[in-house]
């Protein structure tokens, strides 16, 4: 009796291969790889170093914010304000630097502004019990409006004494890799580590799985909720600074509609909008897929007007995948 | 000497009087069945002991010392553990993660401390074995049977050195076979000298595992007696009000 009980308790349920095949992220990853292979064969423009460089750099911005968004979505929340926060951070960074301040002041001010946005979102959601959708929708308007007020809605394209550093940060490379891509990789590794190995990571999954249970077992739910919105805004701020450096100029329509690409990337990468499911790798892979689709349409000479239709289809397929899996589990 | 003593506990929510002057004593190794109709105040009483609500009137004493709980964690620190009506489990996490939720074991690496998976799997496995439940620490709770889910919720109460375990309708939504498992788990707790409060609507369960019966009707305690001195008919009468008091 004791022996068989021991056996039962210690038995492994899944082989690692069947686990892998049950992951949506794995299939999306395969889709990206397949698309890249097909494009390499069908066009002689895809697998060029220049194009690959552009593709990776282009999805880095969405990817960085997708990491922060994943943290929020895992708790069962949503942050619609990231595109506006990115714009606000970019404008503040640009304005501060064009006023003659060094880059660390400009970037510091941009980060401080995005942290403030996240803090307000988080406090209203966690302590006032307001729905994340509504709070961050309001913040989407407010942050963009603040960006317009700050810049008087003018383009900022001169960045003072540290202009070169800023342009290098967003547009330059290190060891042949675009700097935003390096930032993305580092942040993805940190996010992955936090998800798997820290108590904070464990708690955000618990909140997304069953918030009531998390509260009853003593998880500091409110504090964690504030922190996740701060993290999401922080990633938007970082992406904003990098994007100004890449573009070499910033207007107040930067990042418009970006929240939708970011959420699409996260969902395609395997996170569940109901909360409790999501990975850092998925956020990166989801962002990559969207950019590869866009790039392939351009290279194959198909109108880029089709891009949104493809992204939309992938979102629906991703959710369908999830649905089918949970139906199968019920049987 | 009672491990927990409630005296003159009342609780109102606005105009609703959920509990009215309820007193109750729990003994080590004793299982008390708490019965009553829907809305009689059973969950409210448990939540007061668990630190979810503060009583409007009355005192709580543990080992003869008066205590005031502001948060569930304070009750837990005083040796009171709860198995909630809905079990308070996260389906997306493993059994071990649920057992340790809010009390994760960590190991330090310089300035950061990381989750100690090995230690938590091991300890969770030991607890399931102690409870004689075929539950695997690494399995996701969403794939588990009702009985295994109960074992996870109950294993959680065994993490600390709890003296009192409160169970709110643990057998409400599970199959007959699983009910037997839960009743076995309650026997295990009793053997270890833990005071158990079991809320249940199921008369046979209460008569199978409880030593004492407490009946609430509209917030008032109408009976507190040994199970051996009562009968299902009497309890039904007390719950419905056909019998005024016993
Ligand atoms: N948080 C609350 N706010 C207001 N009224 C409550 C609350 N919790 C319980 N009540 C009321 O208190 C009474 C007792 O409820 P409860 O303790 O849940 O009963 P039981 O568990 O015996 O079915 C009911 O009338 C219920 O509506
Ligand atoms: Mg109840």
From TrEMBL, chain A:
One protein family per Pfam: BPD_transp_2
CDD domains in alphabetical order: TM_PBP1_transp_AraH_like
Chief place where the protein resides: membrane
Compartment list: Cell membrane
Record key words, sorted: Cell inner membrane, Cell membrane, Membrane, Transmembrane, Transmembrane helix, Transport
InterPro entries: ABC_transp_permease (IPR001851)
Transmembrane segments: 26-47, 59-92, 165-195, 226-248, 260-285, 297-321
Span of the signal peptide: none
Membrane topology: Multi-pass membrane protein
Protein name: Ribose transport system permease protein
Originating organism: Kaistia dalseonensis
Lineage: Bacteria, Pseudomonadati, Pseudomonadota, Alphaproteobacteria, Hyphomicrobiales
UniProtKB/TrEMBL annotation, chain B:
Taxonomic superkingdom: Bacteria
Start and end residues of each ABC transporter domain: 4-243
A molecular function (GO) term: ATP binding
Nucleotide-binding recorded as keyword: yes
Keywords: ATP-binding, Nucleotide-binding, Sugar transport, Transport
Pfam families in alphabetical order: ABC_tran
PANTHER family according to UniProt: CARBOHYDRATE TRANSPORT ATP-BINDING PROTEIN MG119-RELATED, SUGAR ABC TRANSPORTER ATP-BINDING PROTEIN
Protein name: Simple sugar transport system ATP-binding protein
Organism: Kaistia dalseonensis
């Amino acid at each position: 009796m004791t022996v068989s009980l021991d056996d039962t308790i210690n038995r492994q349920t899944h082989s690692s291969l069947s686990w892998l095949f049950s992951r949506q992220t794995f299939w999306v990853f395969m889709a990206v790889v397949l698309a890249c292979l097909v494009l390499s064969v069908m066009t002689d423009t895809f697998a060029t170093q220049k194009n690959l460089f552009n593709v990776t750099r282009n999805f880095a911005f969405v990817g960085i914010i997708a990491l922060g968004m994943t943290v929020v979505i895992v708790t069962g929340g949503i942050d619609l304000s990231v595109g506006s926060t990115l714009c606000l951070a970019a404008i503040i960074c640009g304005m501060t630097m064009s006023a003659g301040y060094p880059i660390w002041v400009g970037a510091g001010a941009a980060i401080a502004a995005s942290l403030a946005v996240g803090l307000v979102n988080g406090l209203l959601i966690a302590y006032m019990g307001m729905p994340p959708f509504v709070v961050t929708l309001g913040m989407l308007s407010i942050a963009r409006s603040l960006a317009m007020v700050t810049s008087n809605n003018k383009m900022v394209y001169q960045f003072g004494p540290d202009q070169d550093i800023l342009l290098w940060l967003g547009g330059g490379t290190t060891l042949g890799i675009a700097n935003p891509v390096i930032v993305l990789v580092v942040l993805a590794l940190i996010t992955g580590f936090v998800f798997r190995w820290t108590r904070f990571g464990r708690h955000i999954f618990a909140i997304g799985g069953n918030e009531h249970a998390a509260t009853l077992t003593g998880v500091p739910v409110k504090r964690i909720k504030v922190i996740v919105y701060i993290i999401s805004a922080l990633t938007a701020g970082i992406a904003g600074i990098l994007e100004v450096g890449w573009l070499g100029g910033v207007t107040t329509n930067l990042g418009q509609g970006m929240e939708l690409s970011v959420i699409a990337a996260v969902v395609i990468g395997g996170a569940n909008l109901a909360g409790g499911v999501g990975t850092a790798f998925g956020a990166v892979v989801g962002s990559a897929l969207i950019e590869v689709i866009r790039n392939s349409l351009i290279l194959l000479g198909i109108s880029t007007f089709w891009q949104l239709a493809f992204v939309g289809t992938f979102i629906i397929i991703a959710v369908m995948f999830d649905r089918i899996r949970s139906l199968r589990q019920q049987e | 000497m009672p491990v927990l003593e409630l005296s003159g506990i009342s609780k109102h929510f606005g105009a609703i009087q959920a509990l009215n002057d309820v007193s109750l004593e729990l003994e080590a190794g004793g299982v008390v069945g708490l019965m009553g109709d829907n809305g009689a105040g059973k969950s409210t009483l448990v939540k007061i002991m668990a630190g979810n609500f503060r009583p409007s009137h009355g005192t709580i004493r543990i080992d003869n010392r008066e205590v005031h709980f502001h948060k569930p964690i304070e009750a837990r620190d005083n040796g009171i553990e709860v198995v909630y009506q809905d079990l308070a489990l996260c389906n997306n996490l493993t059994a071990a993660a649920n057992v340790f939720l809010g009390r994760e074991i960590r190991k330090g690496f310089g300035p950061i401390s990381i989750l100690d998976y090995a230690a938590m799997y091991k300890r969770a496995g030991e607890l399931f074995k102690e409870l004689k439940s075929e539950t695997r620490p690494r399995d996701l709770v969403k794939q588990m049977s009702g009985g295994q889910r109960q074992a996870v919720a109950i294993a959680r109460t065994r993490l600390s050195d709890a003296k009192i375990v409160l169970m709110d309708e643990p057998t409400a939504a599970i199959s007959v076979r699983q009910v037997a498992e839960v009743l076995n788990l309650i026997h295990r707790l009793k053997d270890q000298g833990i005071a158990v409060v079991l809320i249940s609507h199921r008369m046979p369960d209460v008569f199978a595992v409880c030593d004492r019966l407490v009946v609430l009707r509209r917030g008032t305690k109408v009976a507190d007696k040994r199970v051996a001195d009562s009968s299902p008919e009497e309890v039904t009468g007390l719950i419905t009000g056909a019998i005024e008091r016993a």
